[in-house]
Design brief:
By secondary structure, this protein is an alpha/beta fold. The protein has 13 helices and 18 strands. Helix content is about 30%, strand content about 25%. Strand 16 and strand 17 (about 465) form a beta hairpin. Helix 4 (about 195-210) crosses helix 10 and helix 5 (about 225-235) crosses helix 10.
Length: about 500
Amino acid sequence: MQEKIIILDFGSQTTQLIGRRVRELNTYCEIVPYNKFPYGDETVKGVILSGSPFSVYDEKAFKVDLSEIRGKYPILGICYGAQYIAYTNGGTVEPAETREYGRAHLASFCKENALLKGVKDNSQVWMSHGDTITSIPANFKTIASTDKVAVAAYQVENEQVWGVQFHPEVFHSEDGTQLLENFIVNICHCKQNWSPASFVESTVAELKQQLGNDKVVLALSGGVDSSVVGVLLNKAIGKNLTCVFVDHGLLRKNEFRNVLKDYECLGLNVIGVDASDKFYKELAGVTDPEKKRKIIGKGFIDVFDEEAHKLKDVKWLAQGTIYPDIIESLSITGTVIKSHHNVGGLPEKMNLKLCEPLRLLFKDEVRRVGRELGMPEHLITRHPFPGPGLGVRILGDITPEKVRILQDADDIFIQGLRDWGLYDKVWQAGVILLPVQSVGVMGDERTYENAVALRSVTSTDAMTADWAHLPYEFLGKISNDIINKVKGVNRVTYDISSKPPATIEWE
């Protein structure tokens, strides 16, 4: 069985980054809510407590009894996690005089401590906390300090329990990976045997056990996520898989035809369904972004339900849901950032169970799995494309004419990235149709037409992103081509917003 590290999520924005760092050490991990520890799971090798937006003394703070975990597993508390362990054992946590945010350096630390072996003198760490531990319990010992934080790290004496008030998972913590490796490999004794190959082997075995001889219908989107799911399921259950690719009228230009052609090489049984009229009708006049997402999500499910009923004895609906979909849809604090059609839930009348074999993987991990499965590179390196498609790139109401304008503009932008050798250098790109019109001059005529925004970002997992610094010459060429070739557009802008505070998509 696959050994794992459990990360208890107390709501930090960097909890998922902890998970990524653990996975980069070839160790499987699962992020679970702070109060959902999997007691009885014999594969757990250690526990990490994340940070939190709350203070430990806040009435709303997330609290959990760690007594059943301590002594059974090595524990590492990060930021809030460290403060919580100290506070609940008699230590003192108080608001810092000034919020500690940004770079700091370890002024002193115990080089012989198992958690800190290999950490360099004056190592840079990243702080992000408004509180600080001002005193620790008698059986705790300080193992690291900075010039401003006396207790930057501690260990409980005679226990495998550590706490650090900085964030080793953040890139700016220079020896953060070394610290995490010390904990995972040297303290928890993980074998570092989790890899794309091991994921494929274990997932195929789990799918065979989970699905048995049941028939499955898979919602294909044309993207890498659902494509990888299709190949995994095909490997596990073969002919019992039927794939459905729906054209909701909001795909990229010619994508319905091109994607169906792509799937021929994968040996998948694919049914193409043109449901664009249905979606256009249901979206008519709707401008609220969340309502549009819900309508599109429900529309997908309705179509899949209808197709499933045409097939005999289908019991499962498979989807290409990945981890960022889950965490953006509903955070641990209950705050919805945006809903994803993949995680909107199934209607009660739909008698299908849900199969999501990639729900705990990040995008780059999905791509590595795809390569392990031998999938064509052009499918693996495709930019992420939102499930609601151009529906969330048309700000305001959706009409077939707006879709036509956006498809034409987007096609010029994406093809241009390919022609200039820029496509693989950015994470995601697309065009946004803005709900404004602007004055322009074409020839001797005054125009009053649509404005579009080009969006291109660099990222590793979509949790954070920066705008791509594309060459001015390229942007100028694309702007001219769109204005000259796309009827209805007379102005092109470039989005230079990062995530956070913006999101990659505009809706």
